[in-house]
Amino acid sequence: MFINRSFSLPHKVGSLSYALGENSDDPATRKVPGYESRQFLITTGPLPLYDLDGGNIVFGEVLEGMDVVNAIAGIKTYQPAERLR
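The structure assignment produced for this chain is given below.
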């Protein structure tokens, strides 16, 4: 008997995770034959991160350099709902 432990690790700050759920891409894009979404993420918080548990697979953690991850996470990015200048 094979026991799947893929979802046994909980998410915490610094977890490396593979997202299995549907992403926020354009719905028309997802209908393109052969389209497959691949998303990997590093969790930065805030805690708790229960909404990720059971939907994404934790496969590792940041051992050093979390300050760099947090610096990147703090950079303001374009949001689709924002108006472009």
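Interim note for the steering committee: Residues 15-73 form one domain. The first strand starts at residue 15 and ends at 19.
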